[in-house]
């Protein structure tokens, strides 16, 4: 069986970026088809970051995608930067009048998938043999096509006005951007991430630098917590018993104030390698890239999901202009999105390098980083700058 049809926007990738775009387009009266090679179950159980910027929360709520973030999300007024065994609070609310919300990416995905289903959106999970063609679309009347086999084995060939690559960091659509420049940086460290069944140890996030290295204390629910510690990118998960993990985490947050983590059984362990990556331009012909397909950041600044949502908010606006006949709209998207991407790249790189240690670090490097942290937290301007970056910048306006 095979069928051919057409849609205005073909979206490759039905994670949070693809689904949010499809949702926003539907509200603007623009139809789309979103496909993903992963099945619903896989996406909804892949644990990712959990912090939403103020504007990401607003986007979810104001667009009618989800109210649950307001009732189940935990609003945080700040974070703690911990070093020399002491907490140094960065009060976002007081410094810049903004907050962040702890609400896991898996919940954002589930809410968006539900909203698409509720509104009759066309979303196909578990597709195979998907590809896109004719994205260059230089001659009049030429259109890109999105092809795939759906979960029931039916082959589809969909003519689209625009194709959006929202297919994550291992993006296949990105390969179609001819002449692209791929800018990246790798790091000599990774995160060892755990989920554990334990009560909360602290009511905000703690980003800690210690002689033993980095640790991040985050939460999920009253009974389940998320924590990370910096490790080598080739760390062997099986070499880490629960006892060894707890000892490492406790050492990395210990201090004269007697702060200790509440322990419990560890229910998931993963190593997350990270890197910084940007593909320029984010547009080629009738193809545009959004989210991780176009850029990746290390997780230290909690920017990944927020950047993806910021991309698609701008993209939805520009696609509306595109369908109203504005020829420059796709370029305008790429330009507006990139401006934010590079700010986030810098911030994520900066947070990462300031807080992590490597085997090669000299005592000088170590003291220099502590000097940087000291200088940051003792300056109201320094704290305000961090608060501004962490809670999110406004998008570059249209036009
Ligand atoms: C998380 O809760 O998983 C989390 C929070 C903040 C980060 C990264 C991950 O910077």
TrEMBL record:
Organism from which the protein derives: Nocardioides mangrovicus
Record keyword Lyase present: no
Protein name per its UniProtKB record: 4-hydroxybenzoate 3-monooxygenase
Keyword tags: Monooxygenase, Oxidoreductase
Organism ancestry: Bacteria, Bacillati, Actinomycetota, Actinomycetes, Propionibacteriales
One MF annotation (Gene Ontology) recorded for this entry: FAD binding
Gene3D superfamilies: D-Amino Acid Oxidase, subunit A, domain 2 (3.30.9.10), FAD/NAD(P)-binding domain (3.50.50.60)
UniProt cross-references to InterPro entries, sorted A to Z: FAD-bd, FAD/NAD-bd_sf, PheA/TfdB_FAD_monoxygenase
Domain FAD-binding: 6-347
Classification via Pfam families: FAD_binding_3
């Amino acid at each position: 069986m095979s069928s051919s049809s057409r849609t205005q926007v073909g979206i490759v990738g039905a994670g949070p970026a693809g689904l949010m775009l499809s949702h926003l387009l539907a509200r603007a009266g623009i139809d789309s088809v979103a496909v993903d090679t992963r099945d619903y179950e896989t996406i909804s159980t892949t644990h990712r970051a959990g912090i939403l910027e103020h504007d990401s929360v607003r986007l979810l709520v104001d667009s009618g995608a989800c109210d649950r973030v307001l009732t189940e999300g935990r609003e945080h007024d700040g974070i703690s930067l911990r070093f020399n065994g002491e907490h140094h609070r960065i009060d976002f609310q007081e410094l810049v009048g903004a907050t962040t919300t702890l609400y896991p990416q898996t919940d954002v995905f589930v809410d968006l998938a539900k909203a698409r289903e509720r509104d009759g959106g066309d979303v196909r999970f578990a597709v195979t043999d998907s590809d896109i063609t004719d994205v260059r679309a230089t001659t009049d009347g030429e259109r890109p096509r999105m092809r795939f086999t759906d979960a029931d084995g039916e082959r589809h060939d969909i003519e689209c006005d625009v194709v959006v690559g929202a297919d994550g960091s291992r993006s296949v659509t990105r390969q179609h951007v001819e002449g692209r420049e791929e800018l990246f940086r790798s790091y000599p460290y990774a995160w060892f991430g755990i989920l554990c069944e334990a009560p909360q140890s602290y009511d905000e996030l703690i980003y800690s630098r210690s002689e033993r290295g980095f640790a991040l204390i985050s939460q999920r629910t009253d009974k389940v917590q998320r924590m990370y510690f910096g490790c080598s990118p080739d760390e062997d998960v099986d070499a880490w018993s629960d006892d060894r993990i707890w000892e490492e985490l406790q050492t990395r947050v210990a201090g004269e104030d007697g702060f200790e983590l509440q322990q419990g059984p560890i229910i998931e362990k993963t190593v997350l390698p990270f890197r910084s990556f940007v593909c320029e331009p984010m547009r080629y012909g009738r193809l545009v890239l959004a989210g991780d397909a176009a850029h990746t950041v290390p997780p230290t600044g909690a920017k990944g999901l927020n950047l993806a949502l910021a991309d698609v908010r701008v993209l939805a606006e520009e696609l509306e202009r595109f369908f109203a006949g504005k020829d420059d709209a796709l370029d305008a998207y790429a330009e507006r999105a990139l401006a934010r991407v590079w700010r986030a790249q810098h911030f994520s790189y900066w947070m990462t390098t300031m807080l992590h240690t490597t085997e090669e670090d000299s005592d000088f490097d170590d003291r220099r980083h502590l000097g940087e942290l000291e200088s940051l937290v003792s300056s109201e301007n320094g704290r305000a700058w961090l608060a501004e970056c962490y809670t999110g910048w406004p998008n570059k306006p249209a036009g």
